[in-house]
Specification:
The chain is mainly alpha-helical. It has 107 helices and no strands. The chain is globular and about 155 Å long.
């Protein structure tokens, strides 16, 4: 019984794992009760059982297992963490439950599986169940099948994926086990219930008996669509809502669901694709060309067998299609034609949409082949063309079909019409828009009057079908002229038609008019036939859909855009016009007189032709009165105008009579039902009078009235043709003027541009200038409506004329077409809300493209040309491409049929020769423009291959491809690109370039679309893989594109698509989706009213879009192109523009004049920074071009609109140069007064000036340069530094101008370059100018080389970037230039360098050809200058600069981080002179200039120190009074450190050149050592540390490995780095700024350095390592404690993970952690515990207890425990409140661990154990045995005495002393010699300094008790600043102590031994260490290094002098040692 009672005490979770079954049973029962009680699904209790649930279900004891299953079921149902167990539990259920004999167990197992599906884990469950089907045990197979069946029955086919189940069904039917076969039958029936006949094909091969049984079962199934009876958790809330709705308003959702579910699965989807291309017979292509028909037949039969596969794999079928097409078109054997047609049918059926790209090639051939009469051929061709139609859209093949309609052969006409009819049946109102219907109707109307009855019948059928599909409203306008008989026939046909989509399509359009569909309005217009099913049942769509409605604007009556919206809406106004048109037969003159006399007074008619003008005038007055009184219905318009035209008619000579006549015409037209017949009578006369001075206005008024009655398009056409038949130029020009005005009043809709253009061309060629001017004005007005494409018509005009036209267009840019005021009222009776959704393709701008006369070029694309393009020799290929480019150029606008060209060009897109690829891309770009929207049909076969080119490794090729894709997309819209799988296939390719370019492109295009094809979802899996791509750019682009995908697909679809990702990826992606959801933009709103009513009242401020080429409304992808003229400027956001538009509109003209008084530059806070961010984030175009394109100018204009006065901006962007000059003059005037504004807009001003550099006008250029000179002078006065962005977008363009032919311009540019060096570092200017030397312009090369020479002369060698060597090599190349001036400039520049740098130049230049070298040597001899190291110019330039700096202004103006002060750069490069050394304190200055100019004796004096009389110190009695010395205030003004200066120096720290790095470090050290200046480093600490550890990495990996490098140099660099770091980490405020990541890298660098064996081998190496040790201690103590602890934990984790790191490394990291643990009691309150615990949690997650125990060393686990233990001890139970940052803390090992610890410490309060643990931990590294103290000490002293172990001994002694401060070591020392004692004492002191690293210059405390050992990295420690600010006195003993150390160091240690304090006193760590005692070893090392350098050179100076000079040198921080060396050499030689 003992055993029994034992388990009873265990906690539940342990019982569940017990080996006794009773215990487990009890455990499961208790667990079940617990689970049922827990109310909170997120309770931490659940996590306890996470690992046990699998054991619950797989228990070996059947009874216990049942209870376990019950508990598991409850767990899965209620625990939020249950999902994590899916895989293991379900596989346990499959293997261990489904084989149980007990039915209850199986039931529970199935329930558990279904519950997992309910909690959204369907995919994992299904995967495990499908694995179970492969099990050998039939019981398991049956149970798995049953589970799948139940799941399908309950959750439906949306949740349970049918494809994988259907795949295994046939196998189940073949099973030997009857139970399995029966279950298979049941599941087959269930599947059939969901997908109906789609299941037949996959099961066609099973046993016929089984199939028959199935058929019987299937028949019994109810016909209604099934519904799921159980929902996922996420759907359950929705379901509840739906139930409420249903109870409220009947079965609201029911119908919708049917629509959604039923057609969900397509049999095709369930099939496996078969690859057939490889299976084609090898000789297929030969055989198909064979002469014998039998062989051709064999080839075709082979294909026929292959294409019978119902689903074919995608591939390149172009060749096969081409071969089949040839047979269909050319083969004489009709049997083969039929066979080839069958093969095409098979291909089309098997490939579906993937065949679409070949459809365009095949359709014309098949249609033309319909001339065959044989029924079997006709039938085969019909099947083929019908199958092909389903793979593409009617839009894509419409051109080909319409072309065949004009064929003379009646059979072809008949079959084409029938094909059109069949095609229409597949369409819906939305896929058959008006634009498509119009040409088809026009063609079919010709056919209904055909002589052949079969052609007529076919046409009637087609028209009837169209009528049925889109409804009468849409078709009637096209049937206006059809007589009633034919109309009835069409209607009769329409009633017989059965549509593929049922009567659905028609019904929606009817229903739509009566009542809008709520909630769906906007969405459905975009949804096309995919959504038709939703619309057919009006339902309040799910709540999610609400936003789409908003986006589209509230649904209005008559505007509900259901499918068919676009076809119906805009046609109303059109229909109105057509139906209202008055048709009137022409009447004879007699009838007219009769009618007229009935309404006019008799006298009136008699006097019409009186010879007395007064009578005629009176007659006219009566006539007018009569007309004014008539009713519209009674007025016989034709009769009245006939009367007016009666003799004298329009030849009337009296102007008053004539005016009246014309006025009456206008009245009649306005008041009566005026027909075109009437109009024709008067128009001629009106046109004749339009030019008359007196009557012209009346004539125009009459014309306008007629235009209103008869529509402007017709009137205008008549008037224009009449005007140009006349000779009178005045009439012509006035007609044109009238038309310009009329267009503005009536709008542009319906005008025949083509007819106008020919007349306008005639007018432009007129000799009379007035006619030309009027024509140009008319063009300007047309431009408002048509846009830039109008210009295409006039490209061949003379340049002068073209420039006038352009100027007119320019004026019109930015203007909106006015709102039409006439021609609306009469016709648009149906309200003004029509004309929506871009349904006006026939009218408006876009139509211009269709009006262009297109040339047929297919005959020029000969087979020779095609073979040329495919030739092996690239030159011939190039010729072929050139020819194609020529053909397209010549034709300008082409028809879509281009023969074999697409395949030929496609081949060239992957040409090995990149130049040809680029040429092909250019041709494709031309092609897009030339073919216009018809290019659509080539998207699949040519467009997608262009996208493939985006993956090219060459930048320029990618850019060209992108430009081409954009050019295509502009013509086609985006729908074609997004349809089908092609785009997703491209994205699938793992090419980083392709992915980033394609995603970037999609991110740009998707936001502009209002809807997208559903195929976009196919790209999502690849988008997700891009989010995790190893390439950072790809990831970035994918993240950018994510919100736009979501905008179209919705969050739900996107989230669902993550299901297939790995769990880790899924979490990351879901997090990104959440983030993207927050930033998701809304879809662009429905565009503003179309052109016919452009600025309607409804949308005054909306931006005006051009109607994009309208496909069908599924994708009316109307890219909102804000201003018409800007249709091509992609970079500019429409928002910005519309805002600009508003601004313009709101200003009144009066106000504009006053406005000129205000500021011209508006300061926008952070405007410039935002622009830079936009440019960095590629939101706008980078300012980088060879010549500025329109989009750059537009972008600049937009950016300027917010910060430049409007009137000035108009001047700046005016087309005429005088305005630019005016703008520049204004800018010069305002320069001084608006400094802030100028600086705020500087980037924009400079960009605008770069545009002026491309102008040809010299006066503008001169003005611009003048302004620039003033501007840069201002900037340098203001201490401004150019940002990188400003420099890179301006300097390259300025340098272009340095090559101008005019001297005066070149001079100015050079002057500007000179001034720029004051605001932008010369070293950064250098590369730009260097780039300029590569120009083709020799003047520019020469000037740039001269400028480089000047830079070197002024600023020394340091300006040469990237390195002097590289730069000089580049310059030297130009010595061999063919231009004399360039040669001279290059030679002069190198001579200049020689003068600065001496003979070293030759080494830097490298090898030159003999000729060049001799020229150079000759030139150097001639210049005969001694190299002087000091650039003179600079010496003069600097003082004025440095003194007048207003440091305050400087701080305010500090540029962004990347700037750098040129002054600093100059100082850095000029090492020798006074200014440079001024940075050093006065006392330490070495006045070399004075020495150099002194011809007297050598007077090398000690520097003047603060005078302590050192000699007297030796007399102990005379102790001098202590002197207080403050830090020298002398710190050069120049050092008011701007951020940019520091940035620059820091950037130099990481330099690859050791000297550069040392110099930079010395400068930083100088700053850090001066308290008042050290603050300047704030904000730069991370940057500095990064530069430092990069340098450490560089030394470790590069310099140390470099044999040639003197290792002394490296040690020197190390010393500088470490010295700097120590200085930095003395200053607590700065040290705390270091962030975790940076500290981690720094510690990694330092520890790696400590372990670097190569350093230990160097003689100074030990010293370096000791210093590093000291530095590490500093870092640990001074940096932010949270950051450093965090960094160490991460480092430890990394080091344990990395197999390559040495155990020593991990050990050192742990030692650092122990040190931190020791510091914890003091620092605990400043630590962010939450963060540390999070790091520990992550550590424990990566290294669970088990894994840590496996480590070779036990230290990691002990370290972790110690750290946690210490934290627990210090914080107590409160520590558990600090787990906030851990996501799911219940799963965290850490919480459990802490709880145990807390428990433990509670249990054992007061016990000693923890103290011991702590001691143990802190002494892990001490391996000492616990032997007797004396033995221990004896051992230590033995070590100290031995040569090898002396250091180790000292270290141990120090450690021992530290731990047992009371221990007595006196006895051991007594017996030893005095020397030994002093040795031990010295050694301990050194160790103390090293270990403790105490001592920083006190900031304010003066010398307080905490004053520690100074550790200032400066050899000037002799007078280290004891800044005793409190005025306390410093005892002389301090100085004595320091002097002693100094003397010892110099080997002058002659003090008596007994002066020393006893060693014991030294060893027991003093409470107050000797104040400011000796400087750390490291710094002594630094100074020694520098000294040794000097000693080699000045062996003749005595040692003390040398010492001092060394000290000085090192302390002048900017001194370049080499320069000093040279100067001292010169001093020496002059002394000799």
């Amino acid at each position: 019984m003992g055993d029994d009672s034992e388990w009873l005490k265990l906690p539940v979770d342990q019982k569940c794992e017990h080996k006794l079954w009773k215990a487990r049973l009890s455990g499961y029962e208790e667990a079940l009760k617990i689970f049922q009680k827990i109310k909170d699904e997120k309770s931490p209790e659940w996590s306890k059982y996470l690992g046990l649930i699998k054991k619950f279900v797989t228990d070996s004891n059947a009874v216990v297992q049942l209870k376990g299953l019950e508990a598991a079921l409850v767990y899965v149902e209620n625990a939020h963490v249950a999902g994590k167990t899916t895989g293991e539990v379900v596989s346990g259920v499959v293997s261990k439950v489904f084989n149980q004999p007990k039915a209850k167990a199986k039931e529970l197992g199935i329930e558990i599986c279904l519950m997992y599906i309910e909690i959204e884990k369907g995919e994992s469950v299904q995967e495990e169940l499908l694995k179970g089907l492969d099990n050998k045990n039939p019981k398991i197979i049956v149970a798995c099948t049953e589970t799948l069946r139940k799941a399908l029955s309950e959750f439906g086919s949306k949740i349970i994926l049918l494809k994988p189940i259907i795949k295994v069904l046939p196998k189940l039917f073949e099973s030997r086990d009857k139970a399995v076969r029966d279950e298979a039958k049941l599941i087959a029936v269930e599947i059939y219930r969901w997908i109906r006949d789609a299941l037949r094909h996959p099961l066609q091969n099973i046993n016929s008996v089984q199939l028959k049984e199935l058929e019987e079962e299937w028949v019994k199934l109810p016909t209604g669509a099934p519904k799921p009876s159980r929902f996922l958790r996420s759907q359950q809330e929705l379901e509840a809502k739906l139930e409420q709705q249903q109870s409220a308003g009947g079965d609201a959702e029911g119908g919708g669901d049917d629509g959604d579910e039923a057609p969900q699965i397509d049999a095709y989807e369930l099939l496996e694709a078969v690859e057939i291309l490889s299976k084609l017979p090898k000789d297929f292509y030969d055989k198909i060309e064979a002469k014998k028909w039998q062989e051709r037949k064999e080839a075709l039969e082979a294909v026929e067998v292959l294409v019978k596969n119902p689903k074919l794999e995608a591939g390149d079928y172009a060749d096969l299609v081409k071969a089949l097409k040839k047979v269909v078109g050319k083969d004489t054997n009709v049997m083969l034609v039929a066979l080839a047609a069958k093969c095409l049918t098979g291909l089309a059926v098997g490939l579906r949409k993937k065949f679409g790209q070949y459809a365009g090639h095949v359709v014309p051939t098949i249609l033309e082949k319909f001339k065959e009469k044989k029924p079997q051929v006709v039938q085969a061709l019909q099947e083929a063309i019908d199958a092909i139609f389903l793979t593409t859209t009617l839009q894509n093949i419409s051109e080909d079909v319409l072309a065949v309609m004009d064929n003379k052969n009646p059979t072809i006409k008949q079959q084409t019409s029938l094909f059109i009819a069949r095609s229409f049946r597949h369409c819906t109102a939305s896929t058959l828009p008006k634009s498509l219907l119009k040409p088809f109707c026009a063609a079919l109307l010709k056919h209904i009057s055909d002589s052949a009855p079969e052609v007529r019948d076919a046409a009637f059928e087609a028209l009837g079908t169209a009528l049925k599909v889109v409804g009468e409203k849409a078709v009637n306008p096209f049937l206006a002229d059809v007589d009633k008989l034919k109309l009835d026939k069409i209607k009769e046909c329409s009633e017989k038609v059965e549509l593929v989509h049922g009567k659905k399509a028609g019904s929606t359009s009817e229903k739509k008019d009566s009542k809008p569909v709520p909630g769906r309005a906007a969405a459905s217009g975009a949804a096309g036939d995919k959504d038709t099913k939703d619309v057919s049942v009006p339902k309040p769509g799910p709540l999610k859909k609400a936003p789409t409605t908003k986006a589209g604007g509230p649904p209005k009556k008559g505007k509900t855009a259901a499918p068919g919206g676009s076809a119906n809406t805009g046609t109303k106004s059109k229909k109105a016009l057509d139906t209202k048109e008055i048709v009137e037969p022409e009447l004879s003159i007699e009838v007219c007189e009769e009618k007229a006399s009935a309404v006019l007074p008799p006298t009136c008619i008699q006097l019409l032709d009186s010879s007395n003008w007064k009578e005629r005038l009176a007659c006219m007055e009566e006539f007018q009165k009569a007309v004014e009184l008539m009713e519209r219905t009674e007025m016989p318009c034709q009769a009245l105008v006939r009367m007016l035209a009666k003799k004298p008619g329009w030849k009337e000579t009296n102007f008053q009579v004539m005016q009246m006549k014309l006025h009456i015409v206008a009245l009649v037209a306005q008041k009566g039902n005026f027909s075109k017949t009437s109009a024709q009578i008067v128009l001629d006369g009106l046109v004749d009078k339009i030019g008359d001075v007196k009557c012209g206005n009346n004539a125009k008024e009459a014309l306008t009235a007629i235009a209103e009655a008869c529509m402007l398009p017709w009137t205008a056409e008549q008037v224009m043709s009449m005007a140009f038949l006349q000779k009178n130029p005045k009439n012509q020009s006035e007609t044109l003027n009238w038309l310009s005005n009329a267009i503005k009043e009536f709008g542009f809709s319906g005008l025949n541009v083509k007819a106008f253009i020919s007349n306008v061309k005639t007018a432009l060629a007129a000799t009379n200038p007035a006619v030309r001017t009027s024509a140009i004005t008319l063009l300007g007005v047309m431009y408002l409506y048509v846009g830039p494409s109008l210009r295409m018509f006039f490209e061949d005009e003379k340049p002068a004329l073209l420039s006038q036209i352009d100027a007119e267009f320019e004026k019109m840019q930015g203007q909106r077409p006015p709102t039409p005021t006439r021609g609306i009222s009469k016709h648009s009776t149906s309200g003004t809300d029509e004309g929506e959704d871009g349904d006006e393709p026939d009218d408006g701008g876009n139509d211009v493209v269709d009006l262009l006369p297109r040339v047929e070029i297919s005959d020029k694309i000969t087979s020779e040309l095609v073979s040329k393009i495919g030739d092996k020799n690239w030159k011939i290929r190039k010729e072929g491409l050139d020819e194609v480019a020529g053909i397209i150029n010549e034709a300008k606008f082409i028809q879509p049929n281009i023969g074999e060209l697409p395949t030929a060009l496609k081949g060239r897109l992957n040409d090995s020769n990149k130049i040809l690829v680029q040429q092909t891309l250019n041709i494709l770009q031309q092609l897009a423009v030339a073919m216009g929207p018809n290019i659509k049909q080539h998207v699949k076969n040519l467009g997608i291959p262009i996208i493939t080119v985006l993956g090219d490794s060459k930048n320029n090729v990618r850019a060209a491809a992108l430009a081409t894709v954009n050019a295509w997309a502009e013509q086609t819209g985006m729908k074609e690109w997004l349809e089908g799988e092609d785009l997703s296939e491209e994205l699938k390719k793992e090419n980083p370039f392709l992915r980033q370019e394609l995603l970037g492109w999609l991110a740009e295009k998707l936001p502009t679309l209002r809807s997208t094809p559903t195929d976009l979802i196919l790209c999502v899996p690849h988008l997700y893989s891009c989010l995790e791509d190893r390439n950072g750019d790809v990831r970035k682009k994918a993240q950018d594109a994510l919100p736009f995908f979501m905008m179209h697909l919705g969050y739900e679809k996107m989230a669902k698509a993550t299901g297939k990702l790995k769990p880790t990826s899924k979490d990351q992606v879901l997090a990104m989706l959440e983030k993207a959801k927050a930033n998701m933009p809304s879809k662009p709103a429905a565009p503003a009213k179309t052109m016919s009513k452009p600025m309607g009242g409804s949308a005054p401020a909306k931006c005006q879009p051009t109607p994009a080429p309208v496909e069908d409304s599924v994708s009316s992808i109307l890219e909102a192109k804000p201003d018409l003229k800007k249709a091509k400027a992609p970079g500019v956001s429409s928002k910005a523009k519309s805002a600009q538009g508003k601004k313009v509109a709101s200003k009144t003209t009066i106000k504009e004049d006053d406005d000129k008084s205000g500021p011209i530059f508006i300061v926008v806070p952070n405007g410039k920074e935002q622009r830079m961010r936009d440019e960095k984030g590629l939101k706008v175009l980078k300012w980088n071009f060879t010549t500025p394109r329109d989009e750059y100018i537009e972008q600049l204009k937009t950016q300027m609109s917010s910060c430049v006065a409007k009137w000035l901006q108009d001047e700046m962007f005016h087309s005429e140069f005088q305005h630019h000059n005016k703008a520049l003059a204004v800018m010069v005037d305002h320069l001084e007064s608006e400094k802030e504004g100028v600086i705020g807009c500087l980037d924009l001003i400079l960009k605008w000036l770069t545009l002026r550099f491309f102008d040809t006008n010299t006066s503008v250029l001169m003005k611009a340069l003048e302004y620039l000179k003033l501007l840069f002078t201002l900037l340098s006065d203001e201490e401004y530094h150019l940002t990188e962005n400003e420099a890179s977008s301006f300097i390259p363009y300025l340098i272009l101008k340095v090559g101008e032919p005019k001297d005066v311009i070149r001079k100015d540019v050079r002057a500007i370059l000179n001034r720029m060096c004051l605001v932008y570092p010369a070293s950064k200017m250098f590369p730009f100018i260097m780039e300029g030397t590569k120009s083709k312009n020799s003047k520019q090369r020469a000037e740039c080389l001269e400028e480089l020479g000047c830079l070197v002369e002024s600023y020394g060698m340091n300006v040469c970037q990237p390195t002097p060597g590289k730069a000089l090599k580049e310059i030297a190349i130009h010595i061999g230039d063919r231009d004399n001036a360039v040669r001279n400039a290059a030679l002069n520049t190198i001579v200049t360098v020689y003068n600065v740098h001496g003979d070293q130049v030759f080494k830097l230049i490298g090898n030159l050809s003999e000729k060049d070298m001799s020229m150079l040597e000759e030139r150097i001899k001639r210049s005969a200058k001694r190299p002087s190291a000091v650039p003179v110019k600079q010496a003069e330039e600097k003082p004025q600069r440095t003194q007048n700096i207003n440091s305050n202004a400087n701080m305010l103006r500090k540029g962004p981080a990347e700037d750098m002060s040129s002054k600093l750069n100059q100082a850095r490069s000029m090492s020798g002179h006074p200014e440079a050394s001024q940075m050093v304190r006065r006392e330490f200055q070495l006045d070399l200039d004075e020495i150099e100019n002194d011809n007297g004796t050598v007077r090398c004096e000690m520097p003047e120190l603060v005078q302590h009389k050192l000699d007297d110190i030796f007399e102990p009695v005379l102790i001098p009074e202590p002197k207080i010395r403050a830090v020298s205030p002398h710190f050069d003004d120049m050092h008011s450190n701007t951020a940019s200066t520091i940035n620059f120096i820091i950037s130099q720290v990481a330099s690859g050149d050791i000297n550069t790095s040392i110099q930079a470090l010395t400068q930083i050290d100088e700053v850090l050592r001066q308290e008042d200046k050290a603050e300047a480093m704030s904000g730069h600490i991370d940057q500095f540390l990064i530069a430092t550890f990069m340098q450490l990495r560089l030394i470790y990996s590069t310099h140390m490995a470099d044999e040639k490098l003197d290792k002394g140099e490296i040690i020197k660099l190390y010393s500088c780095i470490i010295g700097n770091m120590i200085s930095l980490f003395q200053i607590e405020s700065l040290a705390r700024e270091a962030s975790t990541g940076v500290l981690k890298d720094l510690m990694h660098g330092l520890i790696t350095l400590m372990l670097d064996s190569r350093i230990e081998d160097l003689e100074e190496g030990q010293q370096v390592i000791r210093s590093v040790n000291l530095l590490v201690v500093k870092v640990l103590e001074k940096s932010d404690q949270t950051n450093i602890l965090s960094a160490l934990l991460v480092l430890l984790q990394d080091s344990l993970l990395a197999t390559a790191t040495s155990p020593k490394y991990s050990e050192l990291v742990m030692k650092c952690l122990w040190r931190m643990v020791r510091l914890l009691p003091d620092t605990i309150n400043s630590i962010n515990l939450d963060r540390i615990l999070l790091d520990i949690h992550i550590f424990m997650k990566v290294f669970p207890k088990e894994k840590l125990k496996q480590c070779k060393s036990e230290f990691p686990i002990r370290t972790l425990k110690t750290l946690l233990h210490t934290l627990c001890k210090l914080k107590g139970p409160k520590i558990l409140d600090h787990l906030t940052m851990i996501d799911n803390k219940n799963e965290s090992e850490l919480e459990a661990h802490l709880c145990r610890m807390m428990k433990h410490s509670m249990d054992q309060t007061g016990s000693k154990s923890d103290k011991e643990t702590e001691k143990g931990a802190s002494r892990i590294d001490e391996k000492s045995s616990k032997a007797k103290v004396n033995d221990f000490l004896a051992e230590i002293f033995k070590k100290i005495g031995s040569k090898e172990n002396t250091k180790e001994g000292l270290a141990e002694l120090y450690e021992y002393k530290k731990k047992y401060s009371d221990a007595d070591i006196e006895p051991f020392l007594k017996n030893s010699s005095q020397f030994f004692q002093s040795y031990v004492e010295r050694g301990l002191r050194v160790i103390e300094m090293e270990r403790e690293g105490k001592g920083r210059i006190p900031t304010s405390t003066g010398i307080s008790s905490q004053m520690e050992v100074t550790c200032v990295p400066t050899p000037s420690s002799t007078v280290s600043s004891i800044g005793n600010t409190n005025g306390e006195e410093v005892g002389p003993s301090v100085y004595l102590e320091r002097l002693k150390i100094l003397r010892q160091r110099c080997g002058l240690d002659n003090t008596k031994q007994d002066d020393r304090p006893p060693l014991t006193a030294l060893l027991s760590k003093p409470a107050i260490p000797p104040v400011a005692s000796s400087t750390d070893m490291l710094h002594s090392k630094l100074s020694q290094l520098r000294e040794s350098r000097e000693q080699h050179q000045h062996s003749d100076l005595d040692s003390s002098q040398t010492h001092s000079s060394g000290t000085i040198t090192s302390s002048s921080s900017t001194t370049n040692i080499d320069d000093l060396k040279k100067r001292l050499e010169r001093i020496k030689s002059s002394r000799k």
